[in-house]
Design a protein that fits this description.
alpha+beta; Phenylalanyl-tRNA Synthetase, Chain B, domain 1; Phenylalanyl-tRNA Synthetase, Chain B, domain 3; seven-stranded mixed β-sheet; five-stranded antiparallel β-sheet; elongated
Length: about 775
């Protein structure tokens, strides 16, 4: 999501004198890939006002003069003294006040700066234009006036260099020492890499001077009081959000940076009560939370007109943690947007010192000696950049010196090494992490308009489909040919659903869109069954669905594999005038489809072994190749069906597609049609209920060897007249030789051997 940054031209000129109009700057921003939304003027309300000097204060009567004209009017004068400057409009007999510019109902005259020349139009000092920029999320460095000035200083169209005035150090007090007044405890340095605390004592809370209020209004912020306005001013100036606490409302004079406890509550300064979870980072005292770290302050510790001692927080919080906390409670702010985009750790000290000085000046306060801090040292990002690669990617012929000049203007430290340069990026440029990022930045600063148009002389050639895509296409065609419909779904599900299909640790998403998408699916069923539920709710109850997609698991590391899942539910043969009975899908349908699919891929020697599953019924089977598990099949149990509100049986098959494609031969071999006849025999056998039929078919394959054409089960039933626990099995065996006609005696001998083996080995009865 794009972020809005309002750029005051007058404020910008304090950092860099660019001698360009707002429109020229807007055009330049556009050429450099920064989107300009609008340009507006903010001084129109000041038209007609001139700077006047207070000459006489007589109770509630005030006499002012612009050097030529004198005027006396009635107003509250307690905050004024002789010689003060105020804005007055002699045409309308109005004085400049908060009510006039729409800030409040207060009509007290604003006191202007002493260096404003009497008789001059107020617009000469306060007229301003504002450019509204839309900033990409990876350019957090542009969310400040300093950042915009840095950006402009890198353009060769701007000849002036950046000038930053260094503020004096805070005057240390001999009266107050912060180490005696406060204890700082940062419990998670990953969540809060940097925290600086300073204190200003004996403050007087009041409205900010007009220059500060006007500057905040220009950049879209509403003035509150001198303390809060000072922190907001520094936020816009340096891009570093600061927060002011009423020190006397902090329990036990302790500041903790910690994560919230489950269901812990805080009422924020917007007077909303929030129930928190363990994802939210807090600023707390020994008893209660006093702020949502990087998001918003708490109501209990906010600055009020009774505040006497102010605690200033200047911190850097982990962007991912701020974003996660903000989304989990659905609360965002100017501060949280900046923290989410990243904060420059090297500007924190400057911002902390300057805001302390400004607050002491605005409130007549005393800066306590020292500071409390918890800091971590970030390792600088160093990138090797090839000159040749840069020109190849950009389609330009920039010299090594041109490339180095651009990097230097971007405040990069460089060290040349042959055909490449080692680049250390500035601490505030989080978007420069790879060599291609630098290449893109070089192209942007050089000018997109200077990229040459190149006519391509290459001819077209037929595209090629890679092997994996071709295999997936063949698999899709197989299932579609069997009447299946392919489903596509995202890989996210909720944690409860994920736990239905795995007994292992689930893969949680650190910053989910919502609770419904808080985990990565361990099985395609976690999302495919949603499709079944929706179809059932709309009356479509006979379904053949399949999906190819990724599933995720967490062992030591996160793993992802490609699976295929197919399911059957409803009637296999719906009621029709040509058929007497309806036929519903059963276990043998899904097993038959599995066998057909594996046979289609020419994967032999597959076995099915019973398993116990927490989401399948008792007839669940592992599908194995040799001793390697490649999938499972079975009927979903009631727990799963109830979770998805599915009222009918659902039979599923799941295969590890990555594994089975390794087993499938790369080439298909063809053979001639048989020239010799086959011999087919049917046998009726009585087996135990628990007997695995695959044991029988495996025995037949072992005995007959190359002569076996096929072995099929054509009948399977239980009940009377068979004894309890017994079933009838009809098996058909076909023998055929590719070289000769089989003789009767030879065939009889083979079948006799089969019957002898299975009756002795498996205690099977022949009917």
């Amino acid at each position: 999501m794009l972020k809005i940054m309002l750029v005051s031209i007058k404020w910008l000129n304090e950092f860099i004198t660019c001698n360009k109009s707002a429109q020229e700057l807007a055009d330049l921003f556009t050429l450099k890939g920064i989107e300009v939304k609008s340009i507006s003027r903010v001084g129109k309300v000041l038209e007609g006002f001139v700077v006047t000097e207070v000459k006489v204060i007589d109770k509630n009567n005030l006499t002012v003069s612009d050097g030529k004209t004198t005027y006396t009017f009635s107003t509250v004068t307690y905050h004024l003294k002789q010689g003060d400057k105020i804005g007055f409009n002699f045409q309308t007999n109005q004085w400049l006040n908060p009510q006039l510019i729409g800030l409040s109902e207060d009509a007290l005259p604003y006191v202007l700066e002493k260096d404003y020349e009497t008789g001059k139009p107020v617009l000469d000092y306060l007229d301003d234009e504002v450019i509204e920029l839309e900033i990409l999320p990876n350019r957090g460095d542009l969310m400040s006036m300093l950042g915009i000035a840095r950006e402009l200083s890198s353009y060769k169209e701007i000849e002036q260099s950046l000038h930053i005035s260094t503020a004096p150090k805070p005057i240390d007090s001999d009266k107050y020492f912060i180490a005696d007044l406060l204890e700082l405890q940062v419990l998670d340095s990953n969540a809060c890499p940097d925290y600086i605390a300073r204190m200003i004592c004996d403050v007087k809370i009041s409205a900010s001077p007009f220059w500060l209020q006007w500057r905040l209004l220009a950049v879209g912020l509403r003035p509150i009081n001198n303390i809060v306005d000072a922190t907001n001013y520094m936020m816009v100036k340096y891009g570093t959000p600061l927060h002011a606490f009423d020190y006397d409302k902090v329990t036990d004079q302790t500041i903790q940076v910690r994560f919230a406890n489950k269901n812990e509550k805080i009422r924020t300064i917007d007077n909303n009560l929030h129930s928190l979870n363990e994802k939210v980072l807090l600023i707390a005292d020994k008893k209660f939370p006093i702020a949502l770290a990087g998001i918003m302050g708490g109501l209990t510790s906010e600055i009020s007109f009774n505040t006497k001692r102010v605690l200033i927080e200047c911190a850097r919080f982990n962007p991912q943690i701020v974003r996660r906390g903000s989304k989990s409670i659905n609360l965002s702010s100017e501060a949280s947007q900046r923290f989410e985009m990243g904060i420059d750790s090297e500007i924190l000290e400057t911002a902390s010192e300057e805001v302390s000085i400004l607050i002491s000046q605005l409130s007549n306060g005393i800066v306590a000696q020292g500071k409390l801090e918890s800091r971590t040292q970030d390792k600088p990002i160093t990138i090797s950049l090839s000159y040749t690669k840069t020109n190849r990617l950009l389609g330009l012929s920039l010299s090594a010196q041109q490339i180095k000049n651009i990097l230097i203007k971007l405040n990069c430290h460089i060290e040349e090494k042959g055909d490449s340069v080692l680049v250390e990026t500035p601490s505030y440029r989080f978007d420069l992490a790879r060599d291609v990022d630098l290449v893109e930045e070089i192209g942007r600063i050089h000018g997109y308009d200077k990229l040459e148009s190149v006519f391509s002389l290459r001819g077209n050639r037929a595209g090629q489909v890679d092997k994996l895509s071709r295999q997936f296409s063949q698999i899709r065609n197989f299932f579609i040919g069997l009447g299946f419909v392919e489903n596509y779904s995202i890989s996210f599900c909720d944690e409860l659903t994920a736990k239905l299909f795995t007994s292992e640790e689930i893969v949680r998403i650190p910053n989910p869109l919502n609770e419904r998408y808080s985990a990565l699916r361990p099985s395609i069923l976690a999302t495919l069954l949603d499709c079944v539920r929706i179809n059932y709710s709309r009356g479509n109850k006979n379904l053949r669905l399949f999906e190819i997609g990724k599933v995720f698991a967490k062992d030591k590391d996160l793993s992802e594999t490609v699976h295929i899942t197919a399911l059957l539910t409803g009637e296999a043969q719906p009621l029709f005038w040509r058929h007497n009975d309806e036929s519903t899908y059963d276990y043998f349908d899904v097993k038959g489809i599995t066998e057909s699919f594996l046979d289609y891929l020419k994967i032999k020697e597959i076995s099915f072994n019973k398993i116990e599953s927490h989401f399948l019924n008792k007839n669940a089977m592992h599908i194995k190749y040799a001793d390697k598990e490649i999938g499972y099949l079975g009927e979903l149990n009631k727990t799963v069906l109830d979770k998805f509100d599915i009222p009918a049986a659902v039979y599923v098959m799941n295969l590890d597609l990555a594994e089975i494609l390794k087993l499938a031969p790369s080439y298909r071999f063809y053979q001639a049609l048989p020239r010799f006849p086959s011999v087919v025999r049917d046998f009726a056998l009585v087996i135990d209920d628990s007997f695995a039929v695959q044991q029988l078919t495996s025995s037949v394959e072992k005995i007959t060897g190359a002569l076996l054409q096929s072995v099929e089960i054509f009948d399977y039933f239980g009940g009377k007249p068979l004894p309890p626990g017994k079933r009838n099995l009809g098996i058909r065996i076909a023998l055929q030789s590719e070289e000769r006609t089989l003789q009767q005696a030879e065939v009889n001998k083979i079948f006799d051997k089969i019957l002898e083996y299975i009756t002795e080995k498996w205690h099977v009865q022949i009917r």
